[in-house]
Amino acid sequence: MEEVDRSRAFAKDVRRIVVKVGTAVVTGKGGRLALGRLGAICEQLAELNADGFEVILVSSGAVGLGRQRLRYRQLVNSSFADLQKPQMELDGKACAGVGQSSLMAYYEAMFDQLDVTVAQMLVTDSSFRDKDFRKQLSETVKSMMKMRVIPVFNENDAISTRRAPYKDATGIFWDNDSLSALLSLELNADLLILLSDVEGLYTGPPSDPNSKLIHTYIKEKHQEEITFGEKSKLGRGGMTAKVKAAVSAASGGVPVIITNGYAAENIAKVIKGLRVGTLFHKDAHLWAPVVDTSSRDMAVAARESSRKLQALSSEDRKKILLGIADALEANEKKIKAENDVDVAVAQDAGYEESLVARLVMKPGKISSLAASIRQLAEMEDPIGRVLKKTQVADGLILEKTSSPLGVLLIVFESRPDALVQIASLAIRSGNGLLLKGGKEARRSNAILHKVITDAIPETVGGKLIGLVTSREEIPDLLKLDDVIDLVIPRGSNKLVSQIKNSTKIPVLGHADGICHVYVDKSCKVDMAKRLVSDAKLDYPAACNAMETLLVHKDLEQNGVLNELIYALQSNGVTLYGGPRASTKLNIPETKSFHHEYSSKACTVEFVEDVHGAIDHIHQHGSSHTDCIVTEDNEVAEIFLRQVDSAAVFHNASTRFSDGFRFGLGAEVGISTSRIHARGPVGVEGLLTTRWIMRGKGQVVDGDNGVVYTHKDLPVLKRTEAVENGN
Questions:
Q1: Domain Aldehyde dehydrogenase, which positions (predicted)?
Q2: Per DSSP, what are the bridge partners of residue 153?
């Protein structure tokens, strides 16, 4: 379960970046420069330079380029007879000398087209043994970067004193990978990016289909697991050298990303904190477990912690919730910062407006969530409440009591505030919890999960609430019908349907929120405008927002319809019509009445009367929440009795269909199922029942041991029971 939030790697603002380009990235077929690929990298670096970043480039490829040029020169200067003889091996140092000037000429030409000045910086291992050299190097680079010059470093192999520069791994640095790590530490870089010809570090050779990309390298976990393939055929050390360099820089405090230099915009993606390549960081072991925790282990741990939670007193469980509310408010700035990053990334990625709207945690949201948790904490303890009490026989008392379900799996999309509501309800109801949020809310979910679990005392343990971070784990979790008791999906119709079709575990939820408002002919106009506007505009992306406006046919004639339409359109709502409304109102015809817009859009249609409205809702609705606006109480009662939805309202906005607004404290979701729980699901929807029997030695003995009375006894409130010693 390894998916670390990249934003943690960049605790401070990234300003100074070292980028190392490997030989396999620089060089194409036949040893020639890959000009297109190199040009794309130069463009990314030029953009960073223009945006105020300090860019330092370390480039390999000189030896390969020099070898290609010298081979050509050797061929041109050879006679036919010379070509028949064995060709002498080219001197590596000579290749380096020729290649360095050629490589730099290419960089100068490319960056000049981008209006960027570059400077060649050739260094050797022995130079770094001189303290004065190191000091001067730092001052020179600092001066260059003030003038927006990009230094281009390369090991000066042409004059290296090492006997075998391609094999000798001794000294301060031994190749351009280790040079880039050294420079990142010497020059106090904020980030090191190592560009390779593969996506990052794999558990085995990248060509092996069983190898998996490691997103975050944890030395204690991965150093014994990784099997390296062949080293680079073009450069010196391949991935082995890059890993050594990355570990060295990361241990010194510089975050490192190894990623694919072939992929366009990968450098920009790294800067944005997107999940590309492999991350190396000195604190990575604190973010992800050294030992993988299986899906089953998480579920079992949640169950064990839930039993510890149930063993606490009601007052202690209440204190946990109050502590979580306080912790959320104390960490509001951190939560908001992480949420802002999620929102920015989602917008840059081009996510739909409705999804981004659900992702945003608006000002005051944390305070609102904390208030709902405190309200939940003050509610009567739901665990162990006596629901029914029966005298089975003389001295034999049976009680039906409320009890936690066990372990819940909640899969939700977009809305990070859902995590807080669900977690608080799970704690109040004594359940263990596994949470899987959408990738678009990864940072928000991670910080909220940490704040909440840190507030849970060790006597219960943070494993009460597990955060599932990988989509690949969901199929495994859905198979665990022996340790997970209920699945609640909160998201799209597609998500809910997929989960229902993939598990034996009971599923509670709704697929769509096709909510209707029917405006009857006897409505009050101002009330109708207010309710319709609120139902659509208060939060258009919510599942309880109005998606279809049904209007009595008579309202077209008296001007009420025009006022309703104006109230919506003047606030930016796009209208689509059914067959009747689209023609009369001259608006586009909807493709389907069963459509959840989740945005500032809705469908309008005329109906004959309340019975027409009911028929329409039953045919096209989703049994979520539906409303009638009318002053005719008889019509209202027909609507309330006959509409078969989880929530049915008279003269009240559909937006009231919410656990907090119902006084449930919070909700894990809204259920349109007809079994177990329906409508907004609060604490009671997360409980089941069990039977407690107290006797005095009675036995059945073929039903001859007792005389059955089956007498109902009064159920005392919990306070009365305590006072009476029961």
A1: 298-567
A2: 58, 121
Report residue 288 as tokens: 């992800």
Residue-wise pLDDT for 85-106, tens only, equals 666 677 777 888 888 888 889 9
Query: Using CA atoms in the order 191, 194, 195, 196, what is the torsion angle rounded to 10 degrees?
Result: -150
pLDDT, average across residues 317-344: 94
Query: Which residues is 680 bridged to in the sheet?
Result: 670
For residue 255, is pLDDT > 70? Answer: yes
Q: What is the pLDDT of residues 10-20, one digit of tens each?
A: 545 789 999 99
pLDDT value at 431 more than 70 = yes
Domain ranges (residues) in the chain: 6-286, 295-383+395-501, 515-667
**Amino acid at site 426:** A
- What is the model's pTM? 0.60
Residue 647 has pLDDT above 80, yes or no: yes
Q: Which fold has domain 6-286?
A: Carbamate kinase (3.40.1160)
Q: Determine the Cα–Cα distance for residues 598 and 595; give it in Å rounded to an integer.
A: 9
Q: How far is CA 642 from CA 614, 618, 673, in A?
A: 7, 10, 17
314-330 vs 365-378: helix crossing angle, rounded to 10: 170
Question: Can you give the length of the chain in residues?
Answer: 726
Compute the Cα dihedral for 474, 480, 481, 485 and give only its sign: negative
For 677, counting Cβ atoms within 10 Å of its Cβ (0-12 exposed, 13-18 middle, 19+ buried), the class is buried
Provide the CATH topology of domain 295-383+395-501.
Aldehyde Dehydrogenase; Chain A, domain 1 (3.40.605)
Tokens of 337: 């910062």
Average pLDDT over residues 283-288: 69
Class of domain 515-667: alpha beta
Find out whether 428 and 664 touch, Cβ atoms under 8 Å: no
Q: Does residue 589 contact residue 577 with C-beta atoms inside 8 Å? A: yes
- Under the banding of pLDDT at 50, 70 and 90, the label for residue 234 is very low
- Per mean pLDDT, which range of 374-383, 464-473, 539-548 is the poorest? 464-473
Residues 6+ apart with CB under 8 A from 89: none
Question: Can you tell me the distance from the alpha carbon of 328 to that of 376, in angstroms, rounded to the nearest whole number?
Answer: 15
Q: Is 122 helix (H, G, I), strand (E, B) or coil?
A: strand
User: Do 649 and 518 touch, CB atoms closer than 8 A?
Assistant: no
Assigned token pair, 396: 């034999």
Collect all residues with Cβ–Cβ distance below 8 Å to 472 and sequence separation of at least 6: none
Give me 302's structure tokens.
């949640």
